Amino acid sequence: MSLTSLPPELLLEVLKHLERDEDLYHLGLTCKHTHRPAFSMFLKKHKIDDPTDMFNCLSAYQYPPLLLPLIRASLWIKDIRHITCAVNPGYDRVWNDVRDLKLDWPHRLLAGAFESSGSVKWANGVTKLLDAAIERGCFSLDVNGGEGLQKFYQEKEPDEMPTIIIQNAHKGFKKKLTSSLKTIASRMSLRSKGLSHLTLEPKLPGPHLRNIDLNYSPMFQYTFYPWTLKMFSNNASTITHLSLTCPYVPTHIMTHFLSSITLPHLDHLSISLFVYQDLLTAAHTVRFYDLVKFLERHPSIESLDLQGVEKPETPSPILKNRILPRIKRIVAHHVWINTLIGFLDRSPDAYPLIESIGVTLEYTTYAHFSDKQHTYEPINGALRRIAQASFPRPITLELQLTTKRGMLEWFDDHTSLGKENSVISSLSCVSALVLTTRFYVCFGREEVYHLPGWLALFPALRSVTLRDLRPEKDGYRLVDDKPLLRRMAVECPTLELVNTINLGTLLDGAERDVGQSY
């Protein structure tokens, strides 16, 4: 009788006799009939939920040394679509996605001073896991966390990247397995007659990776960076979405990264170096002309979101070459908006597909803290530039209110100027407005009171989206939505639709027709 013919009850009894992690691991690799039971026994032993019982979601708070090799070997599970590695310590995470593989790295890995050799060994284990997922058809890669790894950034990469090979040694295991089976086999007069080897799901031909999100990621840290460049190179032909939220990456690494990759089918690019509690510095940014050169090489980009990248020295630098010919949506600092829209002066058809323009202050670097009244004045310059431009169709204007300082004064200044003098009254190209704030910015009762009169200044406004407008911290209901919508209907005769998203107690509703009677 062969091992494959053992009844499940007997097989489980065999597994109980394998006390060492190595024995369970190798038994899971040896035979397709023991693969699932052995790996499940391994996970149960270390109090790790079986991924197949948790919507393909794995969360590990312990660190058995063979956990990474075991997960890599079990990645033949079908329908894996997305993998997230969270390595940030200090707080719990809640996973919302399903059919994903999630790795929640144990806090002990990041405790204390991390020796270089330890970080290299850990990095090699993580990258081998990511390689296994990508090779088997993963099309969305999200690597986040890593705030605790900031101290491992180096101004200069090591001359030689150290490597570590996790060996897959099976020598001597068959003998151990036979010994473990001997007692039970003799009782039942059984004899093991060979093993059918496990065949993993084959690697899929060609690259499949499309979406990459690196959020506070360690993937630019020196132990990961060579793998990161190789990963982008291997999947360059399929990547369409790239999002980088890496405020602590040294500038010279970002310069090298942007000059080293070319993604011919990239249609969405998001770069955020915004840190609300810190002032941004020249040591951690993306230089203006480095990014311009990258955009010149990627004419396929349709959506661009820039937060915290370097502000050019001149208010509106002139671009030598046309960039972003297929752009549909852009959100950026007002100086970037001035620069891009200014290109229309030389080439009126530079942006034939443009649909949406967003303007932000990024106040941690660029706002004037000493002048509360004029904090939002720079946005007015971008609005003038937009009003003077000629667009092929009406556009959506997105305004990101990034600080409480000066917000009320800005609303009041425009309503006081009135339709005759406010720059907002010149925005006949704007048919839709999206108004949003940072999560730490309160949109108080006074701002709400000024909102209808301020919206009335837009001459052709048909719809308004209010997103993430957070009420004051005291929990007081700032306004009842019916009176506010009634005021909007009276003061904004062209307005047809108000869409509210994540407003908490500020407004209660998702979509309102302001023409409706209340």
3D architecture notes:
With 518 residues, the protein is an alpha/beta fold. Among the domains are: 3-154 and 177-184, no CATH class; 355-518, Leucine-rich repeat, LRR (right-handed beta-alpha superhelix). The chain is 32% helix and 14% strand. It is built from 15 helices and 14 strands. The protein has helices spanning 8-16, 21-30, 32-45, 67-73, 116-135, 173-187, 225-234, 251-260, 288-296, 334-342, 363-366, 377-388, 407-421, 445-455, 481-491, and strands spanning 82-86, 100-104, 140-144, 211-215, 241-245, 268-272, 303-307, 329-333, 356-360, 395-401, 430-437, 463-467, 497-501, 511-513. It has a 14-stranded mixed beta sheet. α10 runs parallel beside α12, α13 (407-421) packs parallel to α14 and α14 packs parallel to α15 (481-491). Residues 87-117, 151-156, 158-178, 180-201, 364-370, 475-480 and 505-512 have low confidence and may be disordered. It comes from Crepidotus variabilis. Residues 1-32 form the F-box domain. InterPro entries: F-box_dom (IPR001810), LRR_dom_sf (IPR032675). This is F-box domain-containing protein.
Order of helices and strands: HHHHEEHEHEHEHEHEEHEHHEHEHEHEE
Proportion of strand residues: 5-15%
The geometry reads as elongated
Terminal-residue CA separation:
80 Å
Radius of gyration equals 29 Å
Helix content: 25-40%
> Which residue ranges are poorly predicted, with pLDDT under 50 across at least 5 consecutive positions?
87-117, 151-156, 158-178, 180-201, 364-370, 475-480, 505-512
Using the 3D structure, state the CATH architecture of the domain at 355-518: Alpha-Beta Horseshoe
What is the assembly state of the chains in this entry? single chain
Counting DSSP H or I runs of 4 or more residues, the number of helices is 15
* Averaged pLDDT: 73
Number of DSSP strand runs: 14
**Biggest β-sheet: count, sense, barrel?**
14 strands, mixed
Domain F-box: 1-32
InterPro entries: F-box_dom, LRR_dom_sf
Protein name: F-box domain-containing protein
